[in-house]
């Protein structure tokens, strides 16, 4: 079906549907160079996007950026770096750090974290 009919079925204007397409929120066109035709898969994908926007109270642009962070490693890393810098994210603990902390606890006392009294040995 064409965009006008698809937009009507989705309860939005053709302009809003084109906007979502420009943001990358629609599946790619199957035949390059052809006009977009909307079938059940395309309608379902748009409806799923709209449902996510409502559920998480976000805009189509915010959803598009979230998808970009998931699909582009450089963008994901830049967002992660910002999150660490502003305190919204915590650096993941490395296994080596965990083992180091465990070894220090064992050297300082018993496994439960109590210090041993070496004065009576």
From TrEMBL:
<protein>
    <recommendedName>
        <fullName>HTH merR-type domain-containing protein</fullName>
    </recommendedName>
</protein>
<dbReference type="Pfam" id="PF00376">
    <property type="entry name" value="MerR"/>
</dbReference>
<dbReference type="InterPro" id="IPR000551">
    <property type="entry name" value="MerR-type_HTH_dom"/>
</dbReference>
<feature type="domain" description="HTH merR-type">
    <location>
        <begin position="1"/>
        <end position="48"/>
    </location>
</feature>
<dbReference type="InterPro" id="IPR009061">
    <property type="entry name" value="DNA-bd_dom_put_sf"/>
</dbReference>
């Amino acid at each position: 079906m064409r965009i006008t009919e698809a937009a009507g079925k989705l309860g939005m204007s053709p302009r809003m549907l084109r906007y979502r397409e420009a943001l990358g929120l629609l599946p790619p066109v199957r035949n390059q160079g052809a006009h977009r035709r909307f079938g059940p898969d395309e309608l379902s994908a748009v409806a799923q996007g709209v449902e996510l926007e409502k559920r998480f109270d976000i805009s189509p642009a915010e959803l598009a950026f979230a998808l970009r962070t998931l699909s582009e490693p450089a963008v994901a890393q830049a967002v992660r770096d910002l999150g660490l810098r502003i305190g919204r994210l915590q650096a993941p603990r490395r296994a080596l750090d965990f083992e180091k902390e465990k070894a220090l606890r064992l050297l300082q006392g018993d496994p439960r974290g109590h210090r041993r009294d070496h004065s009576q040995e």
